[in-house]
What does this fold into?
Amino acid sequence: MGVFVFLPLVLPLTALPVARLAELHLHPRVATRLLSGLAVVLALCSTLSLVLLVVVGTAQLPGNPLPDAWSDPEVREAVPYDEIAGKAAIVALAAVAVGCVAAAGRHRRVRRHAHRALAGLPDGELAVLTDKAPYAYALPGSAAGQLPDAGADAGSRRGRGRGHGRGRVVVSTAMLDCLDTRERAALVAHEQAHLNGGHHRYLLAVRLAARANPLLRPLRAAVAYTTERWADEEAARVTGERTVVARAIGKAALVSRGTPTPTLAGFAAPGPVPRRVAALLEPAPSAVNWWPSMSTAVGLAVWTAAAGTLGSALSSANATVTLFLLLKTATPL
It folds into this structure.
């Protein structure tokens, strides 16, 4: 396997330049999908490398997790290993597992809590909560379409479950009081765009990827921004009023501190709001030429990230196949 097994751990560095450039030069929809795809593939490859390092690096350790056939000294001698790297990989892989489980669990708890907060409200795509805190966010539908209380009867469970499978736009009365009629329409269109685009999936994917490899954290921040820009552009397209959407975003950012549910997309999500407003005051971005030219800075960054991702995938595959062939040779059936 050699050095190939270590490459996927550092190749995410090749994707860092494209994070900021994609925010500025690519259509938000394209940037979101591109950065999310890069993050997921790079995270999977680096995690696989850690698994291989654990298997190979612990081959000589007592109580190793390998099959009993590996206990033969000749078999162990045939397996390349690095005891220090193996022990470090165990710790790193455990940290990855704990981090990903914690992130996924938090995301699930937040969604369940948010759904329970809507209990008793009329069904529909828009849920208005009486609250002095101004906020608005998109709440994806639950996996089962409903989150019933244990003591509720079947009829009430069915009644509360309608509409939850599609997701809902949640907004507080305080937020509505801050906006005029046209700005409220922009707010609803923005949050509906989050639901229609499945932005929570992209946000969760890059959050897990960043837990798997800390070098991918810039991509997580970039996707958090591009999903908001994607929803901004959709709201501007639906309402036909870019200035109104920009004004609504500015007002919401002034009166709120983001969503009370940190893992969900929100209208006044923390981040570079001035850049979002400035982008809406410019003409709508074009998505026709979605793959930039190599002669541009963003094109060079995209191709570099693509090459790094391909290299990471090939390195992981090479190390996996090499280990498989070695195991097959050393431990005949």
Summary: Residues 36 and 206 are 6 Å apart (CA to CA). The longest strand covers residues 168-172.
